[in-house]
Input
Amino acid sequence: MSFRKRKVATPGFGHTPWNPIHGEQANLRQDGTAPYCAMMQVAAEDTYSDYVICRGFDPRILKFIDYAEGDVDKPGISVAKPFGKRTAGTYEIGEVYPALLPTQGNDEFADFRKVTYTPPSPVGVNWRVGQNPGVVSGGLDGGQPGSLSDSIQVLYDHNGKVVNWLLIDSAVGSGGGGGDQILFHVVDVHCYPELSVTAEWTHSSGGCNSDPPGADPYTGHVEIFDSCIFAYYTKDYLINGNDGYGATGRATYWYPRGDCEGKWIVDSICGQPECG
Output
């Protein structure tokens, strides 16, 4: 009689040590803390469109991964940018963001206990990237897919390594982003050099004791720019509204990054005077 030798996952080592607590062979990889969420700090100049090099504590291996250019002992961590913000120069060194490990079904996924398995996508949905943020070939500016038919493939960094982490971006930050908001009514419309309105603000999230950022020091008026919203309305409607009172709305101030000037961007148009 002959016996077939059982397959061992670790050739040359034999069976892994028995773990009496788990009641199975011990995991050779140190258990980290799940769910996996980490704080990442941008550690290198943002020169790549889809990801940025960071440093941070990896909760899977319970180790801080530092970054220093050219130092193999401090490789850093390539962290994907959120879809829609995948443009070089979006982030600055020193900024801190939370990050997570996203998961999307993979038909070759097998026995990676520390990731919640998502079943493979239907055949008609080309989105099988496993524990990876994914990347769109083509698509829209900023990295978003242009349609449901766009394929989302595995994202690799400049070293050919699969990217695991995905930044959870902050809306507000000293390095750039949206912050203060105002309610306003339109007093004039400009079509050159780009569609914008001059508006009188009525309420400000920064308080009513001082003008919001970007306001004219003499009139207190602000210039608010188009985000494909003003174009839906006629000039007469924007200036006169329904009752001779300029169309009202809400706008957010997008703070400058580097030497760029901040600007007010319209969020919505209401068409009726704000009150209260």
Summary: The chain is about 0% helix and 30% strand.
